[in-house]
Amino acid sequence: MPSIAPKHATTKLQVELALQRQKTLPLLRLGEALMQESLIAADQLELALQRQNEDKGSRLGEILCDMGFVDQEIMKRILVSKLGIPFIALTGFQFDPVVIEMVPEIFARKFTVIPLYLVMSRMVVAMKDPLSLEALEILAFYTQHRIDPVMASAAELEAVITKCYGAGESKLSTIV
Fold first, then answer.
1. 22-59 tens-digit pLDDT
2. 33 plus 56 within the same structural domain
3. Within-domain flag for 173
4. Which of 116, 133, 146, 158 is nearest to 16 (CA)?
5. Residue among 138, 135, 117, 118 at smallest CA distance from 127
6. Domain of 162: which CATH number?
7. Which of 78, 70, 76 is nearest to 156 (CA)?
8. Per-10-residue mean pLDDT for the chain, 176 residues long?
9. How many structural domains comprise the chain?
10. Residues 135 and 108 in one domain
11. What is the C-alpha to C-alpha distance for residues 140 and 77, in angstroms, rounded to an integer?
12. Could you tell me which residue ranges the Type II secretion system protein GspE N-terminal domain spans (predicted)?
């Protein structure tokens, strides 16, 4: 089986290059990507899709993990390697306090997201679940920017969210 280990972007330039690379990849659905890597069988995908059809609010990746067909770490690697969603290491990333303030704490915590930077009319955000349409739509509406999602680990996101929003501006200034 080919290696599907993610390469972590750590700078704004690396994130931008990864986002540009993502735009050149062919459209591939999550289930197809998992089957392509022989991580699930067609009947497992069918069962998960049936469950998703019954519960309209659930996401396929979560269902596959809940059913025990795929674990979370493999799911992240597939999202990064096959779907081209950049994975970023937040440790050492230079956060812009102005951009952070554009996303209210309630959204950051609810969707486990942190805004990274602005480029013209788009905002790049690190997310636990970069396929969450609800989060992407709410962030786009609230910020009035197009949202480009990248993926980060939930643990790193939660730590940065706590640093940024946990105790207000005094905490925010310590990470810049």
1. 777 776 788 888 998 899 999 999 999 999 999 877 77
2. yes
3. no
4. 116
5. 135
6. 3.30.300.160
7. 76
8. 52 82 75 90 94 84 90 79 82 90 94 94 92 89 94 92 72 45
9. 2
10. yes
11. 26
12. 83-170
